[in-house]
Amino acid sequence: MTSAPPAPSAPPLRGLRVLDLATLFAGPLAATMLGDFGAEVIKVEHPHRPDPSRGHGPAKDGIGLWWKLLGRNKRTVTLDLSTPGGRSTLLTLAATADVVVENFRPGTLEKWGLGWDELSTANPRLVLARVTGFGQFGPYARRPGFGTLAEAMSGFAAITGEPDGPPTLPPFGLADSIAGLATAYAVMTALAGRERTGRGQVVDLAIIEPILTVLGPQPLWYDQLGYVQPRTGNRSTNNAPRNTYRTSDGRWVAVSTSAQSVAERVMRLVGRPELIAEPWFATGAERAAHADVLDQAVGSWIAAHSRDDVVTAFERAEAAVAPVNDVRDVMHDPQYAALDTLTTVDDPELGPLHMQNVLFRLSDTPGSIRWSGRPHGADTDTVLAELGLTEHEITALREEGAV
Q1: Which residues contact 283 (CB under 8 A, 6 or more apart)?
Q2: How are strands ordered across the β-sheet holding 243-246?
Q3: DSSP secondary-structure letter at 240?
Q4: What is the pLDDT of residue 9?
Q5: In angstroms, what CA-CA distances link 224 with 3, 23, 228, 320?
């Protein structure tokens, strides 16, 4: 008789306390990732200027939906860090925390008396993650920085779009999201270092850098060969066929042939096996140079079949294909359903919400979404009371405008 699998252990980051002072996307997303795996995240917002993500994008009943995702697993408090009461309260909080995430312009925390010197004095084991557009030093350090600027500056926009079209920016927060994931990784690396040294440290993460890393070997190509990657639309300079193709029912599929064996299977499937014998078919780069021929062969076959039939045929042939989904398709995709990639969270304000689940699955210490984004300042009094502040002291902070 098979024994039942062991019950999941406590989340791996339980006991870790994170103060999220950041706004919009990169810094707060890093805190969300930590919260998903058990960290206690306290979101600190200005009493009168909450995180702008609460108002970004569509809302329902006046409640921003993006915040429900970005603010999940966070308790929310308000503090005006520029006031004496806000400063002293933040230092008291920092003394109890493991991580502070902030994205103010360089020098702002220092102006308030909350720089690294003050924070590390309050808590020598603290990790301070500073997420800015351009980093803490250099000629651009004090400029306003957003993910859009990183997408342009890194070279991403220059290689994105059709060859005869303009550079193209993504219609979502790509650079911010990559930076958020990189910040979560950087924080965990700093915490691992703390295990050896007993001391915290500063993480300096510039949003312009992680997106450059994921663009791959472009700097190396230029350094060694003088090669500048051009815009190629949906095509690749490394292999072909690689494109999106329209099906007979007006839908779209994407085909990739990064592996030689897959390219050969595709040609057999679409009824053009003679192309495999061409001398140029033997390498990805040579196939890319003949993309017009290959796109015509693949595209004409796909155009004669429905999307479902195309996907089924490619699957049987063990060739790589995927439907080009919009969000409606994603919500009903059986693979996402099997992985529980989109899960249901009960929200006190809006009822059941369908949102992305935690980023990855751990077999023994899984993460979870314990609650969705909470109202502005919902936990202020509770968190301050947990710090030992009396009702009278909390009232005084409120009268000062500190909370």
Answers
A1: 260
A2: 243-246, 252-255, 321-323
A3: S
A4: 81
A5: 58, 40, 11, 32
Reported as a pLDDT band with limits 50, 70 and 90, residue 43 is: very high
Q: Report how far residue 332's alpha carbon sits from residue 254's, in angstroms, rounded to the nearest whole number.
A: 18
Quickly state the pLDDT bin for 1 (edges 50, 70, 90).
very low
Q: What is the mean pLDDT of residues 37-66?
A: 97
**Would you state the pLDDT for residue 8?**
63
Indicate whether 197 pLDDT > 50: yes
DSSP string, 190-202: HHHHHHHHS---E
**For residue 391, with 0-12 CB atoms within 10 Å meaning exposed, 13-18 middle and 19 or more buried, which class applies?**
exposed
Which residue in 51, 80, 98, 176 is the catalytic one? 176
Tell me whether strands 99-102 and 127-132 are parallel, antiparallel or unpaired.
parallel
Is 329 catalytic? The answer is no
Cβ atoms of 18 and 101 within 8 Å: the answer is yes
25's CB contacts (< 8 A; 6+ apart) are: 53, 70, 147, 173, 176, 177, 180
In angstroms, rounded to a whole number, what is the distance separating the alpha carbons of residues 318 and 261? Answer: 10
Both tokens of 372, joined, read: 């969705």
